[in-house]
Design brief:
The protein is of the alpha/beta class. The protein has helices at residues 22-39, 55-69, 90-104, 113-125, 128-135, 157-168, 208-213, 242-248, 265-274, 331-334, 336-346; strands at residues 46-52, 76-83, 251-257, 276-277, 280-281, 289-293, 308-316, 319-324. Strands 1-2-3-8-7-6 form a six-stranded mixed β-sheet. A two-stranded antiparallel sheet has the order 4-5. Strand 4 and strand 5 form a beta hairpin. The mean pLDDT is 96.
C-alpha cells in the first residue's frame, strides 16, 4: 500500500506546481508512478486507486490516464474507490440537498422555526426542492438540466445554514456534523470547520523528529496546501471521465459518510443519476441493501471500531454505492472498520458489501452476534 502526496506542491512533495487541469495532474502522476514501479521492481502489479474529497477529480482522471495507455506493465488499473468525492458542481453537491439534509438531521441543526420556514420557502423559490424531487429518482427520469443558479439573491442556503448552526454550536464541524464542544483537534491539524491546534501541541508531520524518522524533507507541512491547482479548468469527473472509467474497470466504489455536510450524500447520488454507463443512465433501483461490518474483537480501547449493519449499499453495472452511517467526510478516520471492509471488497476478497462473515484476515465466523 502506497500513500502519495500529490499534485506537485502538496505535503512533502518537491517541485513548483504547474498543473492547471486534471490531465496535467494525471500525466505528472503517471510519470512519478512509472519511476516508483521501476525503482521497486513492481512491474505487472494490479493497481487500485483510492482517495477522498477532491480525489473525486484526481482518482477518476488518473485511472482514465492509466487505462488510456494500454500499458499493463506499469498501469494495470483494476479498481478505484472514492470517499465523499467532489464529482459535480457545488450547486448539486451542496446547495440543492442542503435543506433535506438539515431536516433529516434535525436534532443536530436546532435552528429556530422562523429560519427553517425561510429556508423551506427559498429552497422552493430557488428551485432546489423541485430539482431534488424531480431528479433524485430511481430509475432517473432523464438527463439533469443545468442546476438552479446558486448565486442568485437569497439562494446560498448552504452558507446560511452553516453560519446559523455555528452560532448555536460553535464547535460545529462541517466534515462531521455530530461534533459538539469542547473543541476537538486532530494530530494532522485537520479536519474541522476551521484550523485549530491547541497551545503546546504540534501538527504531527511538522515535527522535525517525525520528518527525520520517515526520511522526509525538513520543511513546513500541511494537509491542504495553498498554491496547488488553484486553477483547475477540468470539468468534474461525474460530468466527464467517470462513466467511461467505470465501464473499463472491474470495480468502482463510491462511499459517502452520512454525517458529511461539506459534500452531501444526496448530492453525490444526484450526480450518479445523471451519469450514463453500461448502456443505462443512473441506478435503476434505489440502493437499499444493508452494508455489513463484521463483528470483531478489538485489541484495546485505542482501536475500538464499530460493527454490524453500518449503512446502505447497492451495485449496478460495476458501480457500487455505499452510504456509511456514523461517519463524516473522512470515512477511514471516523469508521475504520467500515473502511477496512470496503477495502476488502475493492480488492475482490469478498463478493459484496452485504456479505455476513468475518473479515478475510480474521479467524472464525463473526457474522451472527
Amino acid at each position: 500500500m502506497v500513500w502519495v502526496e500529490q499534485p506537485v506542491g502538496t505535503g512533502f512533495s518537491q517541485g513548483t506546481p504547474t498543473a492547471t487541469n486534471e490531465d496535467e495532474v494525471a500525466a505528472q502522476f503517471l510519470g512519478f508512478f512509472k519511476n516508483f514501479v521501476d525503482t521497486f521492481a513492481l512491474q505487472g502489479r494490479k493497481v487500485y486507486i483510492t482517495g477522498e474529497s477532491y480525489a473525486g477529480y484526481y482518482v477518476p482522471y488518473i485511472a482514465n490516464a492509466m487505462l488510456n495507455t494500454n500499458n499493463t506493465t506499469y498501469y494495470d488499473a483494476e479498481a478505484i474507490m472514492i470517499y465523499d468525492p467532489s464529482t459535480s458542481t457545488d450547486a448539486v453537491q451542496q446547495q440543492i440537498p442542503a435543506l433535506a439534509f438539515v431536516e433529516a438531521n434535525a436534532p443536530l441543526f436546532p435552528l429556530n422555526t422562523t429560519f427553517i420556514t425561510s429556508l423551506r420557502s427559498r429552497a422552493s423559490s430557488c428551485g432546489y426542492t423541485p430539482f431534488l424531487e424531480t431528479y433524485l429518482t430511481f430509475p432517473p427520469s432523464g438527463p439533469l438540466p443545468p442546476p438552479p443558479n446558486a448565486s442568485a439573491p437569497g439562494c446560498d442556503l448552504f452558507g446560511e445554514i452553516f453560519d446559523a448552526v455555528s452560532l448555536i454550536n460553535p464547535c460545529f464541524d462541517i466534515y462531521q456534523i455530530a461534533t459538539t464542544c469542547p473543541l476537538l483537534w486532530d494530530v494532522l491539524g485537520f479536519p474541522g470547520s476551521f484550523d485549530y491546534v491547541p497551545a503546546g501541541a504540534e501538527v504531527y508531520f511538522n515535527r522535525t523528529d517525525v520528518q527525520m524518522a520517515i526520511n522526509a524533507p525538513i520543511q513546513p507541512w500541511a494537509e491542504c496546501q495553498n498554491g496547488v491547482l488553484e486553477t483547475d479548468t477540468s470539468p468534474p469527473s461525474g460530468l466527464s471521465v467517470l462513466p467511461s472509467v467505470i465501464e473499463r474497470l472491474n470495480r468502482t466504489v463510491i462511499a459517502h459518510g452520512a454525517l458529511d455536510m461539506i459534500l452531501i450524500a444526496n448530492g453525490t447520488l444526484l450526480m450518479i443519476q445523471n451519469m450514463t454507463w453500461g448502456g443505462k443512465q443512473g441506478f435503476q433501483e434505489r440502493p437499499t441493501e444493508e452494508f455489513f461490518v463484521p463483528y470483531h474483537e478489538d485489541s484495546g480501547k485505542s482501536t475500538l471500531a464499530g460493527s454490524g449493519v453500518f449503512g446502505i449499499t447497492g451495485t449496478e453495472r460495476g458501480l457500487t454505492w455505499v452510504e456509511v452511517w456514523l461517519t463524516g467526510h473522512m470515512v477511514p478516520q471516523y469508521a475504520p472498520s467500515a473502511a477496512y471492509r470496503q477495502m476488502e471488497f475493492l480488492l475482490g476478497r469478498i463478493g459484496s458489501l452485504t456479505e455476513r462473515g468475518s473479515f478475510t484476515t480474521q479467524a472464525g465466523d463473526s457474522a451472527g452476534r
